[in-house]
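name: query_chain
kind: protein
chains: 1
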Amino acid sequence: MPRMVSKVRRALGELPMPTPLLEDATLLVSELVTNSIRHAGLHPSDPIWVKAEWTGTRLRVDVIDRGDLPSPRSVAGAIRPTPGAQSGWGLYLVERLATRWGRGPGRYWFELESQADPRSA
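structure:
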């Protein structure tokens, strides 16, 4: 499974976006793919799809692990883990770094917007 996360990171790195945005996107997509691997109840042969769209100013990434689920699973408790926790930081990071994010049946997504003014290029 770590190879899957590495492949997703490399593919994301091929998009022509600013380095700070790429660094945040790489961290967030790694967290969401890892969450899918650990918590979605998938079998080893079940796919996880990652879709990334870069507009030049906005990146949207969807991580889809079980599109067949009838309703979103709820996030239990607060998103922020207790201080010193070894795990549980994924959605907290998404909450803190993403411009927007959400979830749906078998899907988590986030958006990041470039801080650079495209008119100044």
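note: Residues 19-39 form the longest helix (21 residues).
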